[in-house]
Amino acid sequence: MGNGNLPMPDNRSNALDYWINRWTPENPSTSLPRVGGQNNTRVSSFYVQDVSYLRLKSLELGYSLPNSVTEKINITKLRVFVGAQNLVTFTGLEYFDPEGASGGHYNNMKKIILAVCIALTFTNCNNDYLETPSLTQIAEGNFWQSEKDAFLALNGVYSALQSRSMYGGNLNGWQGFPGFDNIGDNAFNQFKWEGPGVFMEGTLDPSSGPIEAIWLDLYRGIARVNAVIKNVEIISEDLVSLETKQELLGQAYFLRGLMYFNLAVYFEEAPLITEPQTLENAYIPKNTYAEITAQIVEDLKSAVDYLPPTQPNDLYGYATKGAALGLFARVQLYNKQYNGQFGVLALTEQAMGLGYSLHPNYGELFTPENEKSNEIVFSIRFLRGDDTSNGEIFSGTFAGSPKVDQRPMPNLANDYYCT
């Protein structure tokens, strides 16, 4: 190929002008060979040149006016500068830029750029001038202005419970909380990569996907519920009535108690965060299991006091007094606190007086028609309909076959039937 330096055999190269002095019959005395011919296109040291160079690549001279001058004209900064690039190059190479000479495709082109730039930054008359809140998006500055905002924030806490790591479940991969049955003797999972296999090997650590996801999703919900508690407590009763505020707080205390109970069961020690965090207090040490449990007990006491016995149909899925009592009893049962005002027996007796009863057909509990049975104390709600996925996969199966990765063991059925 021709490259401006090495001529093409057929004389069609865009050659450099020094090839005008090439060998011809009329110009036999020259140091340049003729154009064309096979020998003249071969690689040869004849065409090698020294490309060493020294270049002043860029130069800039500038001056910034002092503040005493700019303040008088309401300008924070003014700078004037002159810049140049490739100002001068020292090299013995001719016709080529030494930085691109190896490829043979660059002409010796000097680029000089002269620029004068004045940078002006105007100050505003008010520190808040540029901090305009969004007129269309929800933000901290335009939220918590109504009862609707408070319930919307509470719904955000409930949505955290629908995560795959907790109650949303999965078809392939970790099944959420039910997946822990595979680690004990309740169920068997034949797929090592879903968690139980590495647990048996002793290589399942806190950074493993299923474990880390639970931690992150629980604290995501806790951050949301802490914001609800703080803002509902201070919101004006002109915007939200005292009765509604107490019910909202009851929901929030129930949800925080539920999330911290899960943290205490699966991790024992964890940071106890009860206020919205800032960057200044983002890193805090872990608390003991006893400290976390004490907070759970206080949250559930408040939830029992504030929550109503039932919810209207349009709010079904929100926690009730019975849900708070049931969770409270479960916490105390786990901690072997059976007696006293807040023992398992007393809490269970209160819950049973709220109208709960066993459904006559156990199998029907798992059908859509009976999802509001009096036997159900609390359930995580998911959407259902032709226009949406129902949002959960914990009951999902492969088409035409049952779930094969999580299988109940016989002793689970025997324990369930007390045989």
Explain the overall architecture:
With 419 residues, the chain is α+β, with helices and mostly antiparallel strands. 31% of the residues lie in helices and 10% in strands. It contains ten helices and five strands. A three-stranded antiparallel sheet has the order 1-2-3, with no helix packed on it. α5 runs antiparallel to α6 (242-267). The longest helix has 26 residues, at 209-234. It is elongated, with a radius of gyration of 38 Å. Residues 8-12 and 103-108 have low confidence and may be disordered.
Q: SSE string, helix = H, strand = E?
A: EHEEHHEHHHHHHEH
How big a fraction of the residues is strand? 5-15%
Strand order of the largest sheet: 1-2-3
- Overall geometric form: elongated
Total helical elements: 10
Structural class: alpha+beta
As residue ranges, the low-confidence spans are 8-12, 103-108
Task: Evaluate the radius of gyration.
Answer: 38 Å
User: How many beta strands in the DSSP annotation?
Assistant: 5
The CA-CA distance between the termini, in Å, is: 90 Å
Task: Note the main attributes of this structure.
419 residues; 10 helices; two-stranded antiparallel sheet; alpha+beta; three-stranded antiparallel beta sheet
Concise structural overview:
The chain is of the alpha+beta class. The chain has 10 helices and 5 strands, in the order βαββααβααααααβα. It is elongated, with a radius of gyration of 38 Å.
Task: Break the fold down into its secondary structure elements and pairings.
Elements: E1 53-64, H1 67-70, E2 75-91, E3 115-122, H2 147-160, H3 164-168, E4 187-188, H4 196-201, H5 209-234, H6 242-267, H7 289-306, H8 321-334, H9 344-352, E5 407-408, H10 410-416
Antiparallel strand pairs: 1-2, 2-3, 4-5
Helix pairs in contact: 2-5, 2-6, 5-6, 6-7, 6-8, 7-8, 8-9
